[in-house]
Every structure is written in C-alpha cells, then in structure tokens.
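no rush on this but wanted to send it before i forget. theres a chain ive been looking at and ive put its sequence and its fold in token form underneath. please have a look and point out which stretches look like helix strand or loop to you. thanks a lot i owe you, the record is right below:
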Amino acid sequence: MKGYIAFSPDALYPMGGYSGNDEEGKKLQSKMDKAKIEEDFIAAARFLKNHGLSTGKLGVVGFCFGGYISNMLAATMGDELDAAVPLYGTPAAAELQKNITAPIMLQFAGLDERANASWPDYEANLKAHNVDYTAHIYEGVNHGFHNDSTGRYAEKEAELAWARTLEFFGKHLG
C-alpha cells in the first residue's frame, strides 16, 4: 500500500477470530476485556514503529471499533504517533484527549448518530488542546460506508475517504 508497512491485528483472535459478521463480532467483543484489547493495540503499534523495515514514523487508521482504536492510540501514545485517521469511530476518554499530539483526520458518516453525537465535545477538546485536526462528514451515508461487504457501502464516499487518508499519510509520514 503506497510503500507503507501495514499491520492489522485481529482483536477477536482470542475468541477464535473475526466471524465475518459485524453483529456476531460485536457479541464476541462484548465478552472481552476492553483494557486488554487496548493494551494489545498499543503493543502492536509499538512493534510496528520499531520494526526493522519501519522508517520510525507511525500512522494509524481504523474503521468503526478500529476508528475508536485510532482515537485511543492518538490519546495514549502521544509523541510516539505521527498521524491518525479514525473513520466513524468514537473518541478516547475525555481525560486522555489532552495527550493527543499527532495530526488527526477524522471521517464521519453523516447518518451515524452514535459516533457523530460524540463529535461536538471531541472537537471542543481538540481545539482546547491545539491539536492539528481535520474532519470530514460524508452526508447521506451510514456508519460502515467504507465496508464493501455490506449494504452500507458507498463507493464514491469510500474512495474519497481513502484518497484523503493516503494524502494525509503522505503529508505526515512521508
């Protein structure tokens, strides 16, 4: 992918791995220790940042729960992270948001009431802590619009979101 090293941990691995169905995945995830999942993703990010083929720059991108993970990594890793792109993810805990130092590009689905409800407070915190951020809202699309294996897939918006992601990474990781 454009010369990047990619690592995609499966948070559901301890439960047998992703089932291929979002609803079943949510049920499995609800049985897991959220703090352990977060620790695993922080460890994975550090592993990748320090990998022998790495430039030492680290960017994260995530969708849905992965969007939350991207926000959480931005809020917990501080200067270890160079760029974050959460797509329709909820923010990390408000008390952690002051730790965000990496540029962040947030991408929201216009019809996603749950994730979008957290945006005004999150944006206020980003502004209060002088975080370099950009936000895009894709009107008329649902949460998961980037997932081409569901009826929520919106090709035009997904391609635009991905192009913006690669441009953002090129600017901050290149």
DSSP finds six helices and four strands in the chain. Helices lie at 22-30, 34-49, 65-77, 113-117, 119-128, 155-173.
